[in-house]
Amino acid sequence: MIRKIIEIDEEKCTGCGQCVTGCAEGALAIIDGKAKIVRDMFCDGLGACIGHCPEDALHIIEREADDFDEEAAMEHVRRAGGGAPQGHGAGHGGCPSAQVSTRKPAHGGCPSAGMMQMTPCDRANVPTGQVGSALSHWPVQIRLIPPHAPFLQDADLLIAGDCCPVATPDFHGRFLAGRTVMIGCPKFDNAAEYVERLSQVFAQNRINSITVLEMEVPCCSGLSRIVGQALAKSGRDIPCTRAIVARDGQVSEEKLTPAAAPMGLGKL
């Protein structure tokens, strides 16, 4: 079939491997010093890897290729990562109640690209003077979280602009605790890619609720419009809340009815 797929300019490619870490489906590998597509069926054609290339060697083209097979791609990732993750303690003097499980990235890529699930820190066990983390998973970037990530199932989603955590003094306690977070920048990232990725997340998982956390600056309001478009595309009816963070840390919140979310999120 003719479809969108990644093309690699080998003359520009330096083999740095940054694109490999940006591909959640394991479609790319460094072979003989150059990035290559492992199999066409593993590439979804969305281009999440493009922004990770410092040499502008990756582009989306249309050509004849096998249809994307998400199930095969995820099995490929699981096999490359060594199977099911094993749990271990927090270590390094962290919260004793925190537990971590990891899944290695495919193709020997950057270890930080591997999926990780964590038991958030029990605040009662946090040493005096320290603040326990409420983060329950890794990665957190919208572009790096695959729609099949296990921590998305039955989740209360927090979709936040990536400036919000530094402007919100009680971000972990007020917004992150008990939620699965996905962060991104609607100004500098590809909005169409976000819509496609989020619509897949909404369609493929049981999502209990969505909280959209934006900065008060105009460019960040695009995040709620993206979520609205993704909801409309997915056909799902999910309760939504929109929260706006001022630069002084003050937060205003509005509840959105499921029916109004697809069209109204970006207009409030």
| CATH class descriptor name of the largest domain | Alpha Beta
CATH architecture of the largest domain: 3-Layer(aba) Sandwich
Helix-strand sequence: EHEEEHEEEEEHHEHEHEEH
Percent helix range = 10-25%
Enter the CATH topology name of the largest domain: Beta-carbonic Anhydrase, Chain A
The parts where pLDDT drops under 50 for at least 5 residues are 82-94, 96-100, 104-109, 257-268
Strand fraction band? 25-35%
> What's the shape?
globular
Mean pLDDT: 80
End-to-end distance: 42 Å
Q: Specify the number of helices.
A: 7
Structural class: alpha/beta
Main-sheet strand order equals 10-9-11-12-13
Number of domains: 2
Gyration radius, rounded? 19 Å
Count of distinct strands: 13
Main sheet record:
5 strands, mixed
How is this structure best described in words?
This protein is of the alpha/beta class. It has 2 domains: 2-80, 2-Layer Sandwich (Alpha-Beta Plaits), CATH 3.30.70.20; 134-267, Beta-carbonic Anhydrase, Chain A (3-Layer(aba) Sandwich). 21% of the residues lie in helices and 25% in strands. It contains 7 helices and 13 strands. The chain has helices spanning 18-21, 70-80, 164-167, 171-176, 191-204, 222-234, 261-264; strands at residues 2-8, 28-31, 34-37, 58-64, 87-89, 99-102, 116-118, 137-138, 155-161, 180-184, 207-215, 240-245, 251-256. The strands form 4 sheets. Strands 10-9-11-12-13 form a 5-stranded mixed beta sheet. A 4-stranded antiparallel beta sheet has the order 5-6-7-8, with no helix packed on it. Strand 12 (240-245) and strand 13 (251-256) form a beta hairpin. The N and C termini lie far apart (42 Å). The model is unreliable at 82-94, 96-100, 104-109 and 257-268 (pLDDT under 50).
